[in-house]
């Protein structure tokens, strides 16, 4: 799919289609096109230089000693996660954070997450993060993929108004009532509203949503801040 075709397809999606999965279906179609094109390319000859197939200039050689930066699927990480490229470098998949979580909210990412498979993530449908004050998962992380200096900015909740009971004129305030973060959700004329700047993406609202088709979408943070200086030094986190 060309750039212009992709733009037209994206522009054609309404808000309802976006939250209902239309955007994901578009991405899946693009991925199939890329996989077919990759399968049609001839295999490189033995000893041929490695190429960065994700670079805008396809076929450009990667300089010796450089590292190809991967862009993985967005993952809902536990609190205090450093920027994703750095997270993938630091995380040893030791499961210490998962074992330390008293609520069983941390699970290993499944194989479909490719290079992130086996790393810790949160699946709010199964068990959301309950935002423990003492953050035992962060304390247990020796490689510092999770650091206490960062706020628990895991992601952001969005409401699919086409599925939300309150937006469909049925009285409901469960998500607002159960939200543990002050100011992250409130009611406006009886309908829930998410304050993006306050929301942590813990997923509790999604977990408790009583709508027949869950009306809450948790968007994992695509960018996470670098930790501040610790004991006179700065922990370097590359930008994603």
3D architecture notes:
Among the domains are: 84-152, Alpha-Beta Plaits; 155-220, 2-Layer Sandwich (Alpha-Beta Plaits), CATH 3.30.70. Helix content is 25%, strand content 12%. It is built from eight helices and eight strands. The chain has helices at residues 3-11, 15-20, 22-40, 84-90, 96-100, 136-140, 174-178, 204-208; strands at 106-108, 120-122, 155-159, 185-188, 191-194, 216-220, 229-230, 233-234. The strands form four sheets. A two-stranded antiparallel sheet has the order 1-2. β7 (229-230) and β8 (233-234) form a beta hairpin.
Summary tags:
single chain; alpha+beta; two-stranded antiparallel ribbon; Alpha-Beta Plaits; 240 residues; disordered C terminus
Give the topology, please.
Layout: H1 3-11, H2 15-20, H3 22-40, H4 84-90, H5 96-100, E1 106-108, E2 120-122, H6 136-140, E3 155-159, H7 174-178, E4 185-188, E5 191-194, H8 204-208, E6 216-220, E7 229-230, E8 233-234
Radius of gyration: 20 Å
What is the H-and-E element order?
HHHHHEEHEHEEHEEE
What's the level 1 CATH class of one domain? Alpha Beta
Largest sheet features: 2 strands, antiparallel
The helix count comes to 8
Helical content class: 25-40%
**What is the terminal-to-terminal distance?**
25 Å
CATH architecture of one domain: 2-Layer Sandwich
Number of strands: 8
What general form does the structure show?
A: elongated
Please tell me the overall pLDDT. 77
Measured by DSSP, the beta-strand proportion falls in: 5-15%
CATH topology name of one domain, in short, is: Alpha-Beta Plaits
Q: Classify the secondary structure makeup into a structural class.
A: alpha+beta
The parts where pLDDT drops under 50 for at least 5 residues are 6-28, 43-70, 232-240
Q: Strands of the biggest beta sheet: in what spatial order? A: 1-2
């Amino acid at each position: 799919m060309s750039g212009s075709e992709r733009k037209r397809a994206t522009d054609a999606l309404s808000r309802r289609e976006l939250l209902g999965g239309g955007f994901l279906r578009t991405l899946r179609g693009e991925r199939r096109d890329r996989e077919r094109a990759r399968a049609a390319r001839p295999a490189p000859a033995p000893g041929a230089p490695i190429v960065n197939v994700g670079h805008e200039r396809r076929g450009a050689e990667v300089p010796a000693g450089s590292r190809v930066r991967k862009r993985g699927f967005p993952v809902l990480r536990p609190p205090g996660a450093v920027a994703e490229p750095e997270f993938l470098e630091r995380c040893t998949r030791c499961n210490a954070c998962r074992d330390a979580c008293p609520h069983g909210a941390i699970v290993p990412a499944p194989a479909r997450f490719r290079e992130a498979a086996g790393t810790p993530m949160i699946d709010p449908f199964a068990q959301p993060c309950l935002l423990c004050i003492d953050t035992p998962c962060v304390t247990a992380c020796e490689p510092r993929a999770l650091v206490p200096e960062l706020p628990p900015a895991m992601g952001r909740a969005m409401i699919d108004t086409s599925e939300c009971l309150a937006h469909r004129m049925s009285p409901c305030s469960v998500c607002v009532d159960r939200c543990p973060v002050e100011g992250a959700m409130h009611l406006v004329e009886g309908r829930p509203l998410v304050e993006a700047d306050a929301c942590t993406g813990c997923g509790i609202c999604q977990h408790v949503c009583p709508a027949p088709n869950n009306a809450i979408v948790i968007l994992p943070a695509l960018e996470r801040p670098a930790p501040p200086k610790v004991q006179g030094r700065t922990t370097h986190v590359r930008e994603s």
